Amino acid sequence: MSLQHILPDQPAGGIPLRPTLVHLQHAALWLFILSSWFVIVEPAPYEMLFALAFLLFLPGGLTASIFTAPMIIFLALYNIGGFLSATQSWSLPPHLAERAHMFVFISSYMAVTALFFAMAATARPERIATIVRNAWVVAAVIAAILGMIGYFDIAGMGAKWAPLQRAQGTFKDPNVLSTYLVAPAVFLAQDFMLGNVRRPILRGLAFLIIMGGIFLAFSRGAWADTVGSFILLALFTFITTRQPALRRRIVFMSLFIIVSGAALLVILLSIPKVHALFMDRFTLLKSYDTEETGRFASQLRSIPLLLTHPNGLAPFGYAYRFKLDPHNVYINAFASYGWLGGISYFLLILSTIWVGLRAILIPAPWRWHAIAFFAPLLLMIIQGFQIDTDHWRHFYLLLGMTWGLFAASELWLQREKRKRGTA
Question: Could you read off the pLDDT of 163-173 as tens digits, one per residue?
């Protein structure tokens, strides 16, 4: 990791001895993202470093734009719906009622982080995207290594870092760890695809470690996210480039990733413990999905109930009634945030998909960043039908970066049109 990833472009004479506010902003952002590998406790270092980064960015590091207004409005309405729904928490047991109030405050905090990333990326799209990507890759390598240490019970850490016999590390759930690792894997894959790799051996090792962490978490959703994100990365890049050489490179790198992934899979499956758990997890549906009181049956039974409760069921109200979590962020949006929150969340998701596609079609200098952030975000949006993603820190990071890069691209396009108009 070099200072060039954190600091703004330096004069030919080298890095100045006295750091400027911009230097401090970028360093704080890098440390903030780096800390995301450790979130097993709350509040995590991520929360504290976010406060520091936010304060440092306030003087001149954030840009408000009309193009991010829809995200802000929908997130605000979504969380207002959550606070209204939480007024019903009196009907829940005391321990759930207390958690319900904390739930909506956490949701609001997550929304603020998305706003921060959007405004920071709007102000300095290329620099902010580069810092986020670099720090996230480093954090992902640390998280993946700790997860694998737990999985293989190295130094007796299995009980702590793999309590479900799946790589978990310093996350509360293997599903969260594995989806957290998807975006950094996409970043590295894109670097190789575009030929932007300075240390290919080191980057290649980081990629294999991250992919190993994704696999050993044994999350079916994360596996699908990874494959889908790589496909979208190659597809979006192929569509948006007119360079025959780059298109050939995309095809070559796609084949290379497939072969490398297959080789890594063969190696891991040669370990009996890994093979047994893989065969157990490699099924589309499990009994707890399809049984009479399982996930899908409970979701279907909840729909008529939600249609008669404009304020929802209160946070954790769904789990209290059906004895399990919704495992569907869209149903949970109506259950925990009411009709106002549920409709707002759907509008947020639909507008985000449009914004992401729009951002990758605008030929701004940072379009390749927009592709790298939007590809895993789109898969995570789809994964929301299978799991609750509304409190995932990395979901809001991808969300904010996608909107920020879109806003920066639209502003860039306006400037280019003015230049051509006056030329």
Answer: 999 999 999 99
